[in-house]
Amino acid sequence: MQKDPKNLVFNVNDIPRKFKVDQVCLDNYLVNGKIKRWNGPFQTVFSPIEVLKNNEIEKIEIGKYPLMDEKTAIEALDAAVYAYSNGRGIWPTMTVEERTYHVLKFVNKMIEQRDNIIKLLMWEIAKSFEDSTKEFDRTIKYIKDTINEAIDLDRNSSKFSIVDNYIAQIRRSPLGVVLSMGPYNYPL
After folding, report:
1. Using CA atoms, how far apart are residues 107 and 100, in angstroms rounded to an integer?
2. What count of Cα atoms within 13 Å lies in the side-chain half-sphere of residue 61?
3. What is the DSSP-derived secondary structure letter of residue 15?
4. Of 50, 73, 88, 173, which is most buried by a Cβ count within 10 Å?
5. What is the rounded CA–CA span in Å between residue 58 and residue 165?
6. CA angle 146-151-155, nearest 5°?
7. How far, CA to CA in Å, does 154 sit from each of 74, 91, 105, 106, 147?
8. Is the model's pTM score more than 0.90?
9. CA distance 47 to 7
10. Residue 30: pLDDT above 80?
11. Is 180's pLDDT higher than 70?
12. CA distance 4 to 8
């Protein structure tokens, strides 16, 4: 005897409000310090979790992201290369304190969106509430720990070293334009 598939999914109306997610349309992007609006095509994102809605099993649309083109990618790359400027750009010439300020500003904006990000993790990759919460909190901790390490490295490297009658001071700086991508199963 086969079970009715409709009995295997939640009714959309039975999902607690605290776990419901509003659709997100990522129609803005950042290039060269400016927020721009994307007017091209989008990719719709559906949750792998299906629900019962109007007596039909449906996938929940959780948002859209831009399908950017080569021209936009090159524009972003050019802006990053310009910002680095062979080690003489704005970011690499900032002090550690200045870079820390900007990263913490980003982190604080991210924390403001904590609940939304946790819900999006749940719906997009079908992680539990607890695992999504841990992932978010662990990511914030990792960023803050990295900042503290950078501060410690800068503090330690500001000391003078004497080796074979040579006095040296080693300073660290960003090495180039980098795109950092985490593992596919760790969206943050």
Report:
1. 10
2. 9
3. S
4. 50
5. 74
6. 145
7. 33, 15, 20, 21, 11
8. no
9. 19
10. yes
11. no
12. 7
pLDDT of residue 179: 57
Exposure string over 25-34, b if 16+ CB within 10 A, otherwise e: eeeebeeeee
As given in the structure block, the two tokens for residue 66 are 């831009």
pLDDT in tens, 44-54: 999 999 998 99
What is the amino acid identity at position 127? K
Q: Is the dihedral angle over the CA atoms 91, 96, 102, 103 positive or is it negative?
A: positive
Containing H/E element for 57? strand 56-66
Q: Which helix (H) or strand (E) element contains residue 163?
A: strand 160-163
% of the chain beyond a pLDDT of 70 = 92
Q: Could you tell me the pLDDT band of residue 10, with boundaries at 50, 70 and 90?
A: confident
Whole-Å CA distances, 151 to 17, 100, 103: 42, 8, 13
Would you say 31 and 76 are in contact if contact means Cβ atoms under 8 Å apart? yes
Backbone φ, ψ for residue 4 (5° rounding): -70, 120
Two structure tokens written together for 44: 């719709």
Of 68, 76, 62, 72, give the one whose Cα is nearest residue 41.
Answer: 68
pLDDT number for residue 153: 87
> Would you say 83 and 89 are in contact if contact means Cβ atoms under 8 Å apart?
yes
- As given in the structure block, the two tokens for residue 178 are 């980098």
Burial of 121 (0-12, 13-18, 19+ CB in 10 A): buried
